[in-house]
Write a structure and sequence with these properties.
The complex is a heterodimer of chains A (179) and B (291). Chain A is α+β, with helices and mostly antiparallel strands. Chain A has six helices and five strands, in the order ββαβββααααα. Chain A has a five-stranded mixed β-sheet, covered by helices on one side. The longest helix of chain A is centred in the C-terminal third of the chain and has 19 residues. In chain B, a hairpin with a 2-residue loop joins strand 8 and strand 9. Chain B has three domains: 47 residues, 2-Layer Sandwich (Uridine Diphospho-n-acetylenolpyruvylglucosamine Reductase, domain 2), CATH 3.30.43; 116 residues, Uridine Diphospho-n-acetylenolpyruvylglucosamine Reductase, domain 3 (2-Layer Sandwich), CATH 3.30.465.10; 108 residues, 2-Layer Sandwich (Enolase-like, domain 1). The termini of chain B are far apart. Chain B has a five-stranded antiparallel β-sheet with strand order 4-5-10-6-7. A three-stranded parallel β-sheet of chain B has the order 1-3-2, covered by helices on one side. Classes of the chains: A alpha+beta (179), B alpha+beta (291).
């Protein structure tokens, strides 16, 4: 069957088998390997992408179900020099170690901040509770989301944003992570 | 790598179209809603339908509203929508209690109420919640619409009364004054299926229980309910002593089995204890003492 899916604002039309999972469509058919294929059982959350406006586990969604819909992946979040504040928070607060869970974590965190701009730590943990970091770096993941929330609040108020209490101070900078 | 076997895919454009497709493909077709049970089953070849009928486009089945003295839940409503529904929480706190502990927030974004009920997992939380509330299931086919009480909906593990060519379209819960409800679950970890869980709904006149609903899941309760414990409570005082006895009766009449989630005796203990806790919290809520 033929499907057309708008991924990160670009329309892609492909011939697929109906049984193809969305995660494999993104990775294998479109070459967007930022979304990770983890447990394959909708437990770990490494494969989280947005389907229209909602984070979903793409190992448990058929590509056919995305026909005519929009998908947002980590590749659509930002790019070097123009990172999403969530990405910048993960870099500044050492919110990633091996990085396998990171794309899914960041996409869910982005959704959380869009709906709750000032989440308490418990609310961040709840929102990310369907996602597993096998490096067990949860403390810094929560700090990263808090950093992004502060940064965005400051930006709304016209200030410089970011930093302040809660930033670990010993994590690598964005440059160190990417460079 | 787990991938489903080859399957045909049809996207329903309306309820009528879905019913036409389900009638055409018969018993080899499966309804695809959130897919969070069906797709894992297909990966494992526990389900191998020839055709999937995708109903995700049927926005007319996605709603939560109060009408005719009932809460009406469209079958395609997502778990997250039930959890955020103000009327659902106002009238039936048990539904919010249960939804908070079903899977995880991302799964709740996509999994559906109707899909959970039709999957008919013997550990499904919502099956116990709707049994406690004595909900009514609305099922449609090309031949018309029929209603089935929640307690007659499930016929066996993973089996329901929904026949080939039929579609669960709505769940209705009568709203009666003087009621309160709660759900208590013990799981091994966040987002897991329950080791055991109990839901309770109470209707009081002063301190007298005028009606009670007790739902149980994962412990082998007939129809996901504890009918004998409800009979004991009806007409009795809403007291700690009676709640304890009701918990004992509920535990005596369920048939849990030992598995990787726990031994039979522990599950029976949970059936008693969680029934008591749910009744206690439901009573507090009837009296608006907050819980």
């Amino acid at each position: 069957m033929q499907i057309t899916v708008t991924v990160n604002d670009a329309a892609f039309t492909r011939e697929i088998e109906p049984r193809l999972l969305l995660i494999h469509f993104l990775r294998d058919d479109l070459g967007l390997t930022g979304s990770h294929w983890g447990c394959d059982t909708s437990n770990c959350g490494a494969c989280v992408v947005w389907l229209d406006e909602t984070p979903v586990k793409s190992c448990t969604v058929l590509a056919a179900m995305a026909d005519g819909h929009r998908v947002r992946t980590v590749e659509g979040m930002g790019m070097p020099g123009r990172l999403d504040p969530v990405q910048e928070g993960f870099a500044r607060c050492h919110g990633l170690q091996c990085g396998f869970c990171t794309p899914g974590m960041m996409l869910t965190a982005r959704w959380l901040l869009d709906h709750n701009p000032d989440p308490a730590p418990g609310e961040i943990r709840e929102a990310l509770s369907g996602q597993v970091c096998r490096c067990t770096g949860y403390e810094n993941i929560v700090r990263a989301v808090q950093w992004a929330a502060r940064h965005e609040a400051a930006a709304r108020d016209g200030g410089p944003g970011g930093g302040g209490p809660g930033e670990t101070g010993h994590g690598p900078t964005a440059t160190e992570v990417t460079g | 790598m787990q991938v489903p076997a080859q399957v045909e895919y049809e996207r329903a454009a309306s309820v009528e179209h879905a019913l036409t497709l389900l009638a055409r493909y018969g018993p080899e077709a499966r309804v695809l809603a959130g897919g969070h049970s069906l797709i894992p089953m297909m990966k494992l070849r526990l389900a191998q339908p020839e055709t999937l009928v995708d109903i995700n486009g049927l926005s007319e089945l996605s709603y939560l509203r109060v009408a005719d003295g009932e809460l009406h839940i469209g079958a395609l409503s997502r778990h997250a929508e039930l959890l955020s529904s103000a009327p659902a929480g106002e009238h039936f706190a048990i539904l919010h209690d249960a939804e908070k502990v079903i899977a995880d927030p991302v799964v709740r974004n996509w999994g559906t109420i109707g899909g959970s009920l039709c999957q008919a997992d013997p550990s499904e939380d919502l099956s116990a919640a709707f049994a406690a509330l004595k909900a009514i299931m609305v099922i449609r086919s090309q031949g018309g619409t029929r209603t089935v009480p929640a307690r007659e909906f499930h016929t066996a593990p993973y089996e329901t009364v929904v026949a080939p060519g039929e579609l669960l379209i709505e769940i209705r819960i009568p709203i009666r004054p003087g009621g309160g409800s709660a759900y208590e679950k013990v799981g091994r970890r966040v987002g897991d299926w329950p080791v055991g869980a109990a839901g309770a709904a109470l209707w009081l006149d002063g301190d007298t229980i005028t009606d009670a609903g007790i739902g149980l899941t994962a412990v082998g309760a007939r129809n996901f309910a504890a009918a004998e414990a409800e009979d004991f409570l009806r007409g009795a005082a809403a007291s700690e002593e009676n709640f304890t006895r009701a918990g004992q009766i509920a535990a005596e009449h369920c048939r849990p089995v030992s598995d990787q989630r726990g031994p039979e005796a522990y599950k029976r203990h949970l059936a008693a204890e969680l029934t008591v806790r749910a009744l206690r919290r439901a009573a507090v809520r009837v009296r608006h003492e907050d819980a």
